[in-house]
Amino acid sequence: MLHEKRRLQPPPMDTAPEAIANLIDTYFNAYNAARLRESCQLFARMIDSGATIGVSLSGALTPAGLSSVLTPLMNNGFIDYISSTGANLYHDLHFDLGLPLYRGTPDVVTGAVDVKLREDGIIRVYDVLFPADVLYKTDEWVYRVMMAPEFGKRMGTGELHHKIGKYALETSRQTQKSTGKKLQPSILATAHELDLPIYSPSPGDSTIGLNFSAIYTAQADRGPHVDPAIDVAEMSAIVLDAKRADDGLSGVLILGGGAPKNFLLQTEPQLQEILGVAEKGHDFFVQITDARPDTGGLSGATPAEAVSWGKIDPEKLPDTVVAYVDSTIALPLMAAYVQARCKPRKPRRLFARVPQMMEKLRAEYKTTDLYKKYWG
Fold first, then answer.
1. Active site members
2. What count of other Cβ atoms lies within 10 Å of the Cβ of residue 25?
């Protein structure tokens, strides 16, 4: 099952042929194919408009090797900040460490072989397989990294991930040197290099969280003390800064749903409802999902419903689209499309500007009626 020929090692999608974009524009004409075409085109418009773009990541995308698609988008300046499950960030570290993940065979998805996999020490993520030792080695790496003195403080996940990314980048370089293979550094490593902030709405709900909890269990004054209030404030500051800039545009690309989606969108209700700042909502909205709204499963709901919460500017509702398709299908096609159609943008390096943006947020909050009501 764990044959070397099935090892997941996709190269980075650094370039894309024009033919893919032409195929999408010409032949994706109806039903969900049309919605995917519209998603590609709107993502390209978002990029060309100069909008600050936030991306949310849900589902097991990195075990499938899709950081090789996301990191080139980051390097091209097509992603400015990220809201992600901790699991996506954790499993991506396996690649920095040079640890193997494999494509499964058709029989594994039936679940009939799971007892045997357990006996053989093999972990399954649907049809992706890897030795349990991959987890243990990654856990040890994460644990030791977060024991460094620089982690021993109160911080948000943006700072936590930036610090982990520093070590991940160096580890990726060491792995490349020792193996002689060109590797695409992980999302965290790439984000550190680009000063691109990454937030996690549920930091304890991943193996990164399990490890900093283990440090706390051993010594309560060691390791990171993660404060979600910092994340909510910083993400709102990023959005407000985008809306107050000359271009004045904010866009979101949502892959899946769950907490990362709402964490990305709630920035606008935080500004409008909680802080009383005059705002209208995000300007562009693209979601890739397989969930349905009528069952309550379309987490964060449709763009039209999001308007009622102030998450989306009602005047920009035409600049929204939902494609009901698997993210593992849509993301490579969308990435290829914008690489063919859009010129790279200069990275915004928002992480380095977070303190400045927070000061602007505080200053504007202090002018509102809500601030005066609660704080005099």
1. 311
2. 14
